[in-house]
């Protein structure tokens, strides 16, 4: 819908999309779309009727956007991403359409509660974490900035798993988010494409979702591919009595879009994941060529029409696949095809962990994608020839930059393919981009310095402030007007009131309202009652050793011991949330440790009103919308040099949280903007971490001079937090006391010092309110609108194209 011409509806039906009262539209969809009377309708039926009524109000904008783009032959940004962690659509669309109050009134007229209906919406399970959520923020910002754009991905039938937290830790179960349908999507069976994988053909069918911008007429498209077999039913097998074989091809093909695999399971599902990547990339590229032809343009003009962004290495196969389509299907010569490919593609890197850079065994590649492997070999041969000319007599450099990693098992390096086949490579924070150029991709940066740049990540203020924090949104509207919703730099105007005690009291009241909402949720879901006057210390993100949730857990045990020994410390509530990949044993053990600590602390009557520990199950966008407004202290404590950027840190700071963190990822830029006095810094820097490794890091030397750490480790090892099981946490304790790859022991003493500074600061409530206000006021830079504007101007060369509204 985003790029093709479609007729606009005419006459009374068209007018009805705009003039029908929303309450009447809800009644109409309850009856005509679901065949239900109000007395028989469930809450979900009423939610669906409201969603369809709101979608009606999107359709004209969606159709008009497609018509505008088609008629103007505009250059279009294309975002290829294996994940889009969208979150619920309904409330975001109400805000962006400016009809939330109308929806509230319509629900009241029908005897319905809007919040109850909003809670009914299942969350699209299309992403694993920050990568997918960033992609969703970017889609919304592209529409808000009126940029011609389309997103492509996979319509996973079963998304990221549902997480239960039991006394034994994390349990996973299926996430059937599509079980009751999805009112926001439109199937496009006429736009289906074949993809050959391992000698078998799979068909990708398009499902489109409108992505509406805030306060504009632009509604871009997210197009997701669902897999099916060319012949869904083998009639010959059925007639022969082989009923299972009759549907076997259908089941095998549909596996490609059946489930989202967590991104840390490096040794599982390799065949499926590579198949998924070529599936959605090939469908997307074929769709772009169809659009190109429909607009009367030639294959040679592909790069003039499309600016294609590869969101991490998952879509890096696009380099080889675009070359294949240009050469084999459209019959261009190699040099022309290569010029088009490199002029079309740009690549975002999202990791500093070498082991997280995707590689695929050559044997697997040859089985599944033999033609694409031939093309990669040819790309590599030509590339290495150029490197030899530039750097004669440097075989070690050739080995480092080759697209093929030699060894007992030869592997295709997908990050190298993406860099070589793109005109720009960007990191996602200033520190990350510098480390890419100096270390991870240093040889490529030396070869092509002009290709490397930085675009610091951002988050959309509509989702993460206007929707997530209605009390803050109303406060900002009163103080600043509504400009902040599309120009987050307007938040700087809050600084003018920082010295007004009455203003700071109102600010603190907004924060308290956010905390009370989360307290109610925790009580309803977990039966725990939290104290809103305590400091809410929060760490919600994927569970991973480099993010160091276990560092925070060790300090909680220490705090528990200090309180038991009679120290007077300010009340603190620690909240954790996040999922560990099912195959990541150490991350799951960290969850088990936090759960064990919570069980002991929360049962201890001596901790009443002084210390609480909560692990929030099944962290998601919907739950994040409750958590981020409630945060007093944002824990961003990854080992320096390991986190690419982080966006949770931005969401918390924008909602008035103060950060405790290392100089890692976007923390560096947050601290620069909010000021040293409004950020609790600790830990070794990236350079100091490297120096520790160079000198030979031995965690026991740090432990031996820290009696408090020794007591904490001994208590955990005694079985205190594992029901007497002394062996349960042995792998975790052995890791941090023997080789400690993420320098927990090296940073724990300085972390303690920073946490003690937090305790002192919290007791000065007006002073804390000023810190909180300073974080929100200074973080307008971290808007995804700013990020997308930088991509559009510096990398994509895509201009805004306003969509005229209906008169």
Architecture overview:
The protein is an alpha/beta fold and 807 residues long. Helices cover 50% and strands 14% of the residues. It contains 35 helices and 20 strands. A hairpin with a 5-residue loop joins strand 11 and strand 12. Helix 4 (90-97) crosses helix 21. The radius of gyration is 27 Å and the shape is globular. The model is unreliable at 1-18 and 263-267 (pLDDT under 50).
Helix content: 40-55%
- Rg, please? 27 Å
Mean pLDDT, as a whole number?
94
Number of strands: 20
What are the low-pLDDT stretches, counting only 5+ consecutive residues below 50?
1-18, 263-267
Question: Helix count?
Answer: 35
Shape designation: globular
Q: The biggest beta sheet, please?
A: 9 strands, mixed
Strand order of the largest sheet: 5-6-7-2-1-8-9-13-14
Oligomer: single chain
Structural class: alpha/beta
* Strand content bin: 5-15%
The CA-CA distance between the termini, in Å, is 21 Å
In short:
With 807 residues, this protein is of the alpha/beta class.
């Amino acid at each position: 819908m985003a790029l093709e011409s479609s007729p606009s509806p005419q006459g009374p039906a068209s007018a009805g999309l705009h003039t029908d009262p929303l309450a009447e539209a809800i009644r109409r969809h309850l009856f005509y779309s679901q065949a239900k009377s109000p007395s028989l309708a469930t809450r979900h039926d009423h939610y669906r009727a409201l969603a369809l009524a709101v979608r009606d109000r999107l359709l004209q904008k969606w159709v008009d956007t497609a018509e505008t783009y088609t008629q103007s032959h505009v250059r279009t940004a294309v975002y290829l991403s294996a994940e889009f962690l969208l979150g619920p659509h309904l409330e975001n669309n109400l805000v962006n359409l400016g009809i939330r109050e109308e929806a509230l009134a319509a629900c009241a007229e029908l005897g319905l509660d809007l919040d109850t209906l909003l809670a009914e919406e299942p969350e699209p399970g299309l992403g694993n974490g920050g990568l997918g959520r960033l992609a969703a923020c970017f889609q919304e910002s592209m529409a808000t900035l009126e940029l011609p754009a389309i997103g492509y991905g996979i319509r996973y039938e079963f998304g990221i798993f549902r997480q239960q937290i039991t006394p034994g830790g994390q349990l996973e179960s299926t996430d059937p988010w599509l079980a009751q349908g999805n009112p926001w999507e439109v199937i496009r069976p006429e736009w289906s494409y074949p993809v050959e994988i391992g000698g078998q053909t799979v068909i990708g069918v398009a499902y489109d979702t409108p992505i509406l911008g805030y306060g504009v007429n632009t509604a871009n498209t997210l197009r997701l591919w669902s897999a099916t077999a060319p012949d869904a039913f083998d009639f010959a097998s059925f007639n022969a009595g082989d009923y299972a074989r009759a549907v076997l091809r259908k089941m095998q093909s549909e596996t490609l879009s059946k489930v989202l695999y967590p991104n840390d399971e490096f040794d599982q599902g390799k065949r499926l994941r590579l198949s998924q990547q070529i599936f959605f990339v090939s469908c997307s590229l074929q769709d772009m060529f169809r659009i190109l032809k429909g607009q009367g343009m030639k294959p040679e003009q592909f790069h003039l029409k499309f600016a294609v962004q590869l969101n991490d290495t998952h879509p890096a196969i696009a380099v080889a696949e675009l070359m294949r389509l240009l050469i084999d299907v459209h019959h261009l010569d190699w040099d022309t095809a290569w010029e088009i490919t490199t002029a079309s593609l740009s690549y975002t890197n999202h990791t500093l962990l070498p082991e997280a850079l995707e590689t695929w065994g050559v044997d697997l590649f040859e089985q599944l994608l033999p033609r694409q492997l031939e093309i990669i070999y040819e790309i590599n041969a030509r590339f290495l020839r150029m490197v030899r000319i530039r750097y004669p007599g440097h075989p070690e450099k050739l080995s480092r930059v080759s697209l093929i990693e030699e060894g007992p098992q030869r592997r295709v390096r997908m990050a190298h393919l993406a860099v070589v086949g793109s005109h720009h490579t960007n990191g996602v924070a200033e520190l990350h981009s510098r480390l890419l150029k100096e270390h991870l991709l240093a040889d490529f940066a030396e070869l092509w310095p002009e290709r490397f740049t930085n675009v610091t990540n951002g988050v959309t203020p509509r989702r993460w402030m206007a929707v997530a924090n209605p009390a803050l949104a109303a406060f900002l509207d009163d103080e600043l007007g509504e400009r902040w919703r599309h120009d987050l730099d307007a938040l700087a105007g809050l600084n003018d009131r920082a010295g007004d005690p009455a203003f700071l009291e109102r600010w603190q009241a907004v924060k308290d309202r956010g905390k009370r909402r989360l307290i109610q949720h925790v009580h309803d879901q977990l039966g725990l009652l939290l104290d809103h006057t305590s400091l809410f210390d929060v760490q919600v993100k994927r569970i991973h050793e480099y993010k160091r949730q276990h560092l925070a857990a060790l300090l909680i045990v220490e705090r528990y011991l200090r309180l038991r020994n009679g120290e007077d410390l300010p009340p603190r509530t620690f909240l954790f949330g996040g999922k560990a990949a099912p195959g990541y044993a150490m991350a799951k053990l960290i969850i088990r440790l936090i759960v064990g600590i919570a069980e002991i602390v929360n049962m201890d009557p001596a901790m009443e009103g002084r210390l609480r520990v909560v692990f929030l199950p099944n962290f998601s966008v919907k739950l994040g919308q409750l958590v981020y407004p409630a945060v007093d202290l944002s824990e961003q404590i990854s080992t320096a040099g390991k986190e690419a950027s982080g966006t949770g840190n931005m969401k918390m700071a924008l909602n008035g949280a103060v950060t405790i963190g290392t100089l890692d990822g976007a923390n560096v830029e947050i601290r620069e903007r909010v000021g040293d006095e409004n950020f609790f810094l600790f830990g070794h820097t990236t350079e100091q971490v490297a120096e520790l490794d160079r000198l030979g890091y031995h965690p026991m030397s740090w432990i031996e001079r820290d009696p408090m750490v020794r007591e904490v480790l001994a208590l955990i090892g005694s079985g205190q937090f594992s029901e007497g099981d002394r062996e349960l946490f042995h792998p975790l304790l052995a890791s941090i006391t023997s080789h400690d790859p993420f320098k927990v022991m090296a940073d724990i003493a300085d972390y303690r010092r920073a946490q003690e500074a937090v305790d002192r600061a919290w007791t000065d409530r007006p002073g804390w309110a000023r810190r909180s206000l300073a974080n929100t006021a200074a973080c307008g830079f971290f808007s995804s609108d700013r990020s997308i504007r930088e991509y559009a101007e510096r990398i994509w060369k895509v201009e805004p194209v306003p969509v005229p509204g209906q008169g």
